[in-house]
Specification:
The chain is α/β, with parallel strands linked by helices and 419 residues long. 39% of the residues lie in helices and 25% in strands. It has 13 helices and 19 strands. It has an 8-stranded mixed sheet. It has a 6-stranded antiparallel sheet with strand order 15-16-14-17-19-18. The chain has a 3-stranded mixed sheet with strand order 4-6-7. The longest helix is centred in the N-terminal third of the chain and has 22 residues, at 57-78. The protein is globular and about 70 Å long. It binds aspartic acid and magnesium ion. Magnesium ion binds next to loops.
Length: 419
């Protein structure tokens, strides 16, 4: 069997969903299809949630009404008989309205997962119903029943062993040769919904591929495959046809927005190749990520990770930075879910570069108990792999650089964002 994953951009319109039909109708093999929320639905649901958390239930319901009409408009355009699609999603909007009207927003992260996860439930319902209407037999699965996670709301970790038996039973391909399930979501052992982190649907697809021992996983994206740099930021980009799991982890960690960093591990563990292919031109091969390649990357790779913060901590008692203070600082950052993208230490201080997030101020407060803390925000981290002086000159010229790291092949430059 194979796993196909379609992201939010692929399902943002009726036209996109028709294209999914075209792509899956050509597949002979058994197929598990993972789908994200439609378009910018996750962002929109975050606004619904914010209003709810401020106890402004009416504003929350109004925002939800916008989400609902966006989905209904797509259904009207997509289905021959729109009633089929409308009936399929109606119960979920009813549930959402009830949760919002009756609920009390106590725990942000938990409510996030409870409400925002509906984006994927609703999108998969629409895709499944549309494929059925178009003559493609398939079975919809609510993966909150099969993907078992811990209770780390908003960034939950999948429990592979618990999930395996459940998913293999639910998607055994005896009665159906196509299953449709959600990216991004699961539930803890008590059944409370969880989410796996923003853009986590790639990771879901990899988890499903692992649990069902897929021959391959394919992520359909609105790009030709994996490029050596983001074409919106750099000129003359080229397609990388093959890369290893290790390359892919390195690129994703450096901030390449192409795949979620957690995607590779479940695939690597079972040697499952990952294809990244263009949704708009499915006849093209795109990129394959696998164990080994005979064609190592032979072009420089440039990755820009935005919205970075540089934090420097120094023990208050003037003790040197030894293991103890290092581990203290990192455990605080870990507790507050800071994503560390670069580390540097000296005799008396530790500097780390992290993604800016809503958890930052809590972490800075707690670090302040033990350390003298300074920080700069509004930064971006440029990683250059296959570094040459010419590329460095071209990409960093005139920029204010706060921190540099260079190894034989790579360079990293933490710079002030351009005004
Ligand atoms: N819908 C979620 C998000 O936008 C997950 C995903 O698209 O991968 O973050
Ligand atoms: Mg998305």
């Amino acid at each position: 069997m194979q796993v196909y994953k379609f992201g939010g951009a692929s399902v943002r319109s009726a036209e996109g969903i028709r294209n999914i039909y075209r792509i899956v109708s050509g597949v002979q093999d058994n197929l598990f299809v993972v789908v994200s929320a439609m378009g910018k639905t996750t962002n929109a649901m975050e606004v619904v949630l914010d209003c709810f958390m401020k106890a402004d239930h009416q504003a929350s319901l109004n925002k939800l009404a916008e989400v609902e009409s966006y989905h209904k408009d797509i259904i009207e355009e997509l289905f021959v008989n729109p009633e089929i699609g409308l009936v399929a999603i109606e119960p979920f909007f009813t549930e959402l309205k009830r949760l919002i009207s009756e609920g009390i927003g106590d725990d942000y992260d938990r409510w996030y997962d409870r409400l925002v996860s509906y984006g994927e439930i609703i999108s998969t319902k629409i895709v499944s119903a549309y494929l059925l209407e178009s003559g493609i037999e398939n079975t919809w699965i609510d993966l909150r029943g099969q993907i078992v996670t811990d209770s780390n709301y908003r960034e939950a970790n999948v429990k592979m062993d618990e999930s395996q038996a459940r998913l293999q039973q639910a998607a055994d391909f005896t009665k159906s040769r196509m299953y449709i399930g959600q990216g991004f979501i699961g539930a803890n052992i008590k059944g409370d919904p969880t989410t796996l982190g923003r853009e986590g649907s790639d990771y879901s697809a990899a988890v499903v591929g692992n649990l069902l021992n897929a021959e391959s996983v394919t992520i359909w994206k609105d790009v030709p495959g994996i490029l050596n740099a983001d074409p919106r930021l750099f000129e003359n980009t080229v397609l990388i046809r093959e890369l290893t799991y290790l390359d892919a982890v390195e690129l994703a960690y450096s901030g390449a927005q192409i795949i979620h960093p957690k995607t590779i591990k479940p695939l690597e563990n079972k040697h499952i190749p990952l294809y990244v292919r263009p949704f708009g031109t499915p006849e093209e091969a795109g990129t394959v990520i696998k164990e080994k390649t005979d064609n190592p990357i032979d072009v420089p790779v440039l990755i820009l990770r935005k919205n970075q913060v540089l934090i420097t901590v120094r023990p208050r008692d003037f003790s040197f930075v030894l293991e103890e203070s290092l581990s203290k600082a990192f455990s605080v950052m870990n507790k507050h879910r800071l994503k560390v993208s670069m580390i540097q230490s000296s005799a008396i201080s530790i500097s780390v570069c992290v993604d800016n997030s809503r958890y930052l101020s809590g972490a800075l407060d707690e670090l302040g108990n033990e350390f003298k803390v300074t920080y700069n925000d509004g930064l971006e981290l440029l990683t250059i792999r296959g570094i040459t002086d010419e590329i460095v000159q071209k990409t960093t010229d005139g920029r204010t650089i706060l921190l540099t790291q260079r190894t034989r092949r790579s360079g990293r430059y933490l710079m002030k964002e351009l005004a």
